[in-house]
Amino acid sequence: MVSIEHQKGFTLLEFAVAFAVFLAFTIGLITTAMWGIGGFFLHNAASEAARKYAVTADTVLAQELVRERIGRWGFVFIDPNTVRVSVRREGSKAVVMVSAEPRVKKLYFYQMPEIRREASCTMEYRFRNPGEFN
Predict the structure, then answer these.
(1) What is the dihedral of CA 19, 20, 26, 31, to 10 degrees?
(2) For residues 101 and 115, is the Cβ–Cβ distance under 8 A?
(3) How far is CA 120 from CA 46, 87, 90, 93, 128, in A?
(4) In terms of DSSP bridges, do strands 84-90 and 115-122 run parallel, antiparallel, or are they unpaired?
(5) So what's the pLDDT on residue 116?
(6) pLDDT at residue number 110
(7) Residue burial 8-28, b: 16+ Cβ < 10 Å; e: rest
(8) What are phi and psi of 112, to 5 degrees?
(9) What pLDDT does 27 receive?
(10) Predicted local distance difference test score (pLDDT) of residue 81
(11) How is residue 77 annotated by DSSP?
(12) Residue 87, Cα to own-chain centre: how many angstroms?
């Protein structure tokens, strides 16, 4: 039979184990949420850049717009030095691919992958000259 004083020690041990599991889960949840918010910022920047390229057909302006959008608040969740932007035209569509490393790449045993987002928009030329398209 275990005495009451020893039971208090077991309760503390059980609490420590449960707290460690809870803490690991919470840290994983926060890290995953930060990765998801970073993905939202990248997707927003890619969408805006695709719209800009669809109207202006200027690659440099679209790339600058991505960096501007990420520079507002995205730098909290994304490492701005790792942002890569690809702007291209595929037929009548403007396609922008943005990728970056999350600010928190690894926290304890949680490893976050690179964030990649792609957005497309129909080129405005198609709307201005509908007779040229079937």
Answers:
(1) 160
(2) yes
(3) 8, 10, 9, 6, 18
(4) unpaired
(5) 96
(6) 72
(7) eeeeeeeeeeeeeeeeeeeee
(8) -95, 130
(9) 86
(10) 93
(11) T
(12) 18
- Supply 82's token pair: 């790792």
Query: 132 exposed, middle or buried (CB, 10 Å; 0-12, 13-18, 19+)?
Result: exposed
pTM of the model: 0.79
Residues recorded for the chain: 134
Measure the CA angle with vertex 40, ends 36 and 44; round to 5°. 170
pLDDT tens for the chain, 134 residues long, are 556 655 667 888 889 999 999 998 898 888 889 999 999 999 999 999 999 999 888 999 999 999 999 988 888 999 999 999 999 999 889 999 999 999 888 877 778 899 999 999 988 876 666 677 66
DSSP 8-state class, residue 106: E
Give ∠ CA 38-41-46 in degrees, rounded to 5.
Answer: 125
Q: Please give the single-letter amino acid code of residue 134.
A: N
Report the SS3 class of residue 113. Answer: coil
- Alpha carbons 66 and 80: distance in angstroms, whole number: 11
Cα–Cα distance, 32 to 36 (Å, whole number): 6
The amino acid at residue 7 is Q
